[in-house]
Amino acid sequence: MRTVSKGRLIDALLLLMTIIWGTNFPIVKSALRELEPQAFNSVRMIVASVAFLVVIVAVRAFARRSARAESSTVSGVLSIFHTPARVTPREWLGLAGLGVVGHALYQFFFIGGLARTSVANSSLMLAVTPVLIALASALLGHERVSRSHWIGAAVSLFGIYLVVGSGFALDGASLTGDLMMVGAVCCWAAYTLGSRPLMTRHSPVAVSGLSMALGTAMYVPLVWPKMRAVDWLSVSSWTMFLIVYSALFALCVAYTIWYVGVRQIGSARTAAYSNFIPLIAMVSAVIVLHEPIGLRKIIGAAAVLAGVALTRRTRA
Q1: What is the pLDDT of residues 158-170, one digit of tens each?
Q2: φ/ψ bin of 266: left (φ > 0), alpha (ψ from -120 to 50), beta (otherwise)
Q3: DSSP string across 201-237
Q4: What are the domain boundaries of the chain?
Q5: Shortest CA distance to 301 belongs to which of 123, 122, 169, 121?
């Protein structure tokens, strides 16, 4: 019973993650109407890094105080936020590498690509992530990827094509953005797989937060001229709210859930849930932009759900 309930909890958390990331598309698009993409992203990453570091310090202090009275339930929850192991010099290098690939480069490519191409193109590019991670996991020997997983991935990709495929267009205006999104997908796959050794000794919050802080320290100098060019006093309070909201939820909460999933059910099965993101983005577009949903999109959504169900049934 505990295993079943734990599996359902992971499912619920990963679905929450897809909702956060799916709705983040219109949030970012709205903020980019007023801000230059890299300037927006730099402030967002700074806010997220500060929030992560505050949580890490606070949880470490709490863990020391409650060490004697710690129950198994508290210990299980606390392991998401804190582990007593010290970070070795070699692990600091690993965290710095994750910071470069998974935060500095990924965010540079993602926000730049999203600003230059359509949501349909972005969704299709990101839909390749689960297949790329599953293939890399199998080649590296991290996970045994079963036949049902590959079938599920193929069904999900077909469903995503039905949902957004008709809106996919490759032309000169969006080619740069499309290529940047491909770079973002490759960075995210490397980031996910590269976290596995660190995750055996450290908590998801520690790995996410420390790597993000290191990545932000590298990213901000790279885009500093764009930050200086913005008249921040004239930026509306609504756009500033969107920056903070996206930082706390899309970067802090969703990143932590992603790593919890990687640690509990593996990289390949966690990545399968990202197939929901284009569906959430589509629903968000319906609510915000009043875009219609036809039979093609309904069938595509059903195919995505079926494909993720197949991958979720795969046992590690």
Answers
A1: 776 766 555 555 5
A2: left
A3: TS-HHHHHHHHHHHHHHHHHHHHHHHHHTS-GGGS-H
A4: 2-313
A5: 123
